[in-house]
Amino acid sequence: MLRVAFKYAYFGWNFSGNQFQPHLRTVDGEIFRAFEKLGINARERRYRIAGRTDAGVSAFGNVFAVNLDSFEPWFLRVLNSNLPDDVSVWAYSVVDGHFNPRKALSRVYRYVLPDEGFDVEAMKNAAQMLLGKHDFSGFAKACRPCVREILRSEIEKRGDFIIYTVEGNAFAWNMVRKIVTALKIAGMKSDPEIVKLVLSGEHVPLTPASPYGLILIDVKYPFEFKKDEKIYGLLQERIQERMRKFAQLYGIFRFLR
């Protein structure tokens, strides 16, 4: 029996999250169905995922692991042929039999939001306050205490958009989306102090930002994954197709008047 880790991507807006839920369309559900078509019950083969994402959240480099009787690289193409076009399993690594993908070195998320006239410098200062180890209870849901370490927290402006990239050892439920809400408030008020207040334990109501701007970019481990170039190329084409579609929709509504 081999344990194999797979890196996978999905477009999250048509899913009720990635964790399996009966009677709802989830990423896990689609992966389970693909394995079942190959005669494999993934849930009975210690299927584990690195990170749970909410409904609407996308991923480029999430990771799952499963036990297989045997494995050859061509298995990726067979597996992908049984998946819908909004899920792509694009890399693999044969790992230790005890490997748990949740025990990662770090996770990298990115959030994209339209620039509504935010004070970008205030947002940058607020983002820097998150670096290091803190209790993030005020930014999380159902997590008390909630000690996490943030390794990277960066704001940059690109055209009409503001990009927030954050890397940490782990993230709690809604944590990134609540951080984004705090950064938006800092940008609207030109004052980064809201982050300091939340980290100090002061109660500040924060509604999670929309899930549609969030993507799990990568999950890092002390080993490398082997990329299937053909599947990776097809994934890039699928990304380009969706970029064209949403660029047209953006243009329609932006230039409506």
TrEMBL record:
Keywords: Isomerase, tRNA processing. Residues 126-222 form the Pseudouridine synthase I TruA alpha/beta domain. Its EC number is 5.4.99.12. The keyword Isomerase applies. InterPro entries: PsdUridine_synth_cat_dom_sf, PsdUridine_synth_TruA, PsdUridine_synth_TruA_a/b_dom, PsdUridine_synth_TruA_C. One of its GO terms (molecular function) is tRNA pseudouridine(38-40) synthase activity. Substrate binds at residue 109. It comes from the Archaea. It catalyses: uridine(38/39/40) in tRNA = pseudouridine(38/39/40) in tRNA. The active site is at residue 54. PANTHER family: PSEUDOURIDYLATE SYNTHASE, TRNA PSEUDOURIDINE SYNTHASE-LIKE 1. Belongs to the tRNA pseudouridine synthase TruA family. Formation of pseudouridine at positions 38, 39 and 40 in the anticodon stem and loop of transfer RNAs. This is tRNA pseudouridine synthase A. It comes from Geoglobus acetivorans.
